[in-house]
Backbone:
């Protein structure tokens, strides 16, 4: 179980960007999209891979799938160097690119699956078994004869996920699998992925902007920023690293000036009789609540857990050498 | 990069599978398909009509009679038609690279060239080959040639070699689009321009152009040289006697060069991304 299924050691990817600076003059500039990236993923793990746009998520996925060749470092998936043996690895991995369907637009859904059957040389019995299972779990039974262009976004995503799994891949890469889906479709996709990982021990690596995907699916999360891994660990640990804060929402009897709370707790917002106080997530709320109850006319209160999006935004903000860092997340902590 | 089954066999199989999907996709719009087939036949017939119109005014073009020019036309257009049917889609590679959908081809377990060549496979392109072979058929009957076994065999060999030469041009041009994604017009100048050029006798063109078409882009072997042999005419540029039979060799060299250019293009894509 401890064997590393995906292994990256000091992987880097440098793009040569040529920019037109004159009629025939070009300026060459290298952009380091991924910088000494090292991590391992064990067989059967489900890992969330997050970071802002342009952080290097897609570049990493493209190197893992063999689409791009790393500029340096060592990369192995199931013992295979993806860029050298792309075709061999293709039989063992499934890829779902959320914004790009691999299904055949004008043909019934089932035709795309028949193509996979033959293209991947899936044995007949196994194909039928996998198809039946995926059709049932993803609720595709009524859609098989429908041309793909008539499917809704959520239906198509489920169709794409099924297409990526017909050949029993050991690893599944999902790039934004829930992007643009409604709440019901998201729930269905997540439930399916959870089952897939639990029952078939498929290794799953997913990138997402929807942190609920991570919260509901992944025990481990990796955060990448400007090509570097800035966090790798349990989701819960993110809160500590991100020095996240919880929020105490207090309803007073009437409008009052901001509560004088003991540091480090502080009022971050006042709106009529309601006030929002931020305090470190690692501290207990009890003392603070008792103090306020003793000194102010309290009507109601509630505690809000830190918003992970804000946590990550703050974490990416911490390296102080960033003039173009994401906006201050103060507005996010209270919603 | 070889394991298990050989790559050409795998490639052909994948080509068949993907082309089949595209044919079925096209047939979901039957009326549109029928219309484009008719339109294609008409359009590709027009350039032969242009030649006929010329011969309404003159008896010979550069010393070649109508059946002889028709032979050139038939050989060139038939070979080009086959190449375009099989490899024409490589020309639209740039679009796939630009919109990023090229990546989805790279995660499949089949050769990329086969996937790109079969991409948007269009049966309507059959029109050009059919029209070319009709003219070729007429020309073969109409020309004044003393047919022997060698000359009879030379005709299909020439068509196949011509198709390979044009196909190589499509592939090499496609590979260039890894670097310059809007280069398809440059490629068209060589492919479509090449086939139009070959429809006229070499004697009407300047020596430098003929030289270029013989030694740089060896299109001359697709019809000029073999046709000169069939008709007992002097070879362009005074090429040696055996030149008419060099077409297979030229075709193999072209295919190998195109393969190398393709691999280099793919390698540069995979190391630069887009």
Residues:
């Amino acid at each position: 179980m401890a064997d590393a299924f995906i292994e990256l050691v000091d992987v880097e990817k440098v793009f040569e960007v040529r920019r037109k600076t004159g009629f025939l003059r070009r300026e060459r500039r290298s952009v380091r999209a991924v910088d000494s990236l090292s991590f391992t993923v064990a067989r059967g793990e489900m890992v969330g891979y997050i970071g802002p746009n342009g952080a290097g998520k897609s570049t990493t996925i493209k190197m893992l799938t063999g689409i791009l060749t790393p500029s340096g470092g060592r990369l192995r998936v199931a013992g295979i160097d993806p860029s050298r043996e792309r075709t061999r690895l293709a039989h063992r991995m499934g890829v779902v690119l959320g914004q790009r369907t691999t299904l055949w637009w004008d043909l019934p859904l089932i035709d795309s699956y028949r193509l996979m059957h033959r293209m991947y040389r899936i044995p007949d019995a196994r194909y039928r078994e996998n198809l039946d299972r995926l059709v049932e779990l993803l609720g595709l039974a009524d859609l098989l004869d429908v041309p793909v262009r008539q499917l809704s976004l959520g239906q198509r995503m489920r169709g794409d996920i099924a297409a990526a799994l017909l050949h029993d891949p050991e690893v599944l890469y999902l790039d934004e699998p829930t992007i643009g889906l409604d709440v019901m479709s998201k729930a269905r996709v997540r439930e399916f992925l959870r089952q897939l990982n639990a029952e078939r021990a498929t290794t799953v690596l997913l990138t997402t902007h929807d942190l609920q995907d991570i919260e509901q699916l992944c025990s481990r999360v990796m955060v990448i920023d400007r090509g570097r891994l800035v966090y790798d660990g349990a989701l819960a640990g993110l809160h500590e690293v991100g020095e996240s804060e919880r929020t105490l929402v207090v309803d007073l009897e009437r409008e009052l000036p901001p509560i004088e709370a003991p540091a480090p707790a502080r009022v971050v917002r006042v709106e009529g009789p309601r006030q929002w106080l931020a305090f470190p997530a690692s501290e207990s709320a009890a003392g603070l609540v008792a103090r306020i109850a003793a000194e102010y006319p309290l009507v109601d209160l509630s505690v809000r857990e830190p918003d992970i999006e804000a946590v990550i935004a703050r974490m990416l903000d911490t390296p102080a050498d960033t003039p173009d860092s994401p906006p201050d997340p103060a507005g996010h902590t209270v919603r | 990069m070889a394991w298990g089954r050989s790559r050409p066999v795998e490639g052909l199989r994948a080509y068949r599978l993907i082309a089949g999907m595209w044919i079925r996709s096209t047939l979901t719009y039957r009326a549109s398909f029928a219309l484009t087939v008719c339109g294609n036949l008409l359009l590709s017939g027009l350039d032969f009509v242009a030649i006929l119109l010329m011969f309404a005014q003159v008896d010979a073009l550069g010393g070649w009679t109508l059946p002889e020019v028709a032979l050139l036309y038939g050989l060139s257009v038939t070979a080009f038609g086959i190449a375009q049917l099989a490899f024409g889609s490589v020309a639209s590679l740039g679009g796939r690279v630009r919109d990023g959908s090229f990546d989805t081809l790279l995660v499949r377990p089949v050769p990329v060239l086969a996937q790109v060549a079969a991409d948007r496979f269009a049966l309507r392109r059959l029109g050009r080959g059919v029209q070319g072979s009709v003219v070729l058929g007429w020309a073969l009957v109409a020309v004044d040639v003393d047919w022997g076994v060698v000359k009879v065999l030379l005709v299909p060999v020439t068509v196949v070699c011509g198709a390979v030469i044009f196909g190589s041009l499509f592939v090499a041009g496609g590979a260039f689009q890894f670097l310059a994604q809007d280069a398809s017009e440059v490629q068209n100048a060589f492919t479509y321009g090449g086939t139009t050029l070959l429809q006229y006798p070499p004697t009407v063109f300047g020596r430098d152009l003929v030289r270029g078409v013989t030694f740089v882009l060896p299109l001359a072997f697709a019809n000029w040289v073999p046709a000169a042999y069939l008709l007992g005419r002097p070879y362009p540029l005074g090429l040696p006697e055996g030149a008419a039979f060099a077409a297979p060799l030229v075709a193999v060299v072209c295919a190998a060069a195109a393969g190398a250019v393709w691999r280099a293009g793919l390698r540069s894509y995979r190391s630069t991304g887009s």
About this structure: Chain A touches chain B at residues 13, 15-16, 33, 59, 62, 65-69, 71, 83-88, 90-91, 93, 95, 97, 100, 102, 104-107, 111, 115, 118-120, 147 (CB under 8 Å). Chain A has a mean pLDDT of 86. The first helix of chain A runs from residue 57 to 64. The radius of gyration of chain A is 24 Å.
